[in-house]
Specification:
This protein has 90 residues and is an alpha+beta fold. The protein contains 3 helices and 5 strands; from the N terminus they run βααββββα. The chain has helices at 7-17, 21-27, 81-89, and strands spanning 3-4, 34-38, 45-52, 55-61, 71-78. It has a 5-stranded mixed beta sheet with strand order 1-5-4-3-2.
């Protein structure tokens, strides 16, 4: 899957949360990722908890409608203890 994002938003996210969207992309390779729908006024979004190495992340994103479309990362931060527990429990 291909991912895209707003570079200004990505820079702000990195300053605020210390997490790059490039790291978030790597977390999507986690076969144990936990994704739940997050309906939003701007369109359907998803909340995913996934790990990239030792970093367990909480990522808000869209999913592509078709094969030629890209997913869009909206935000990414370190997962809270509660989110990580939900991930670990599956």
């Amino acid at each position: 899957m291909r991912w895209t994002w707003d570079p200004v938003k990505a820079a702000a996210n990195r300053r605020k949360h210390g997490v790059s969207f490039e790291l978030a992309v790597m977390a999507f390779d986690d076969p144990l990722q936990l994704s739940l729908p997050d309906p939003h006024a701007d369109g359907d979004r998803w909340r995913t908890v996934a790990c990239a190495g030792p970093a367990c992340l909480f990522i808000v994103h869209t999913l592509p409608e078709g094969e030629d479309e890209e997913g869009r990362i909206v935000s990414a931060r370190r997962a809270t203890a509660r989110e990580r527990k939900a991930y670990e429990e599956g």
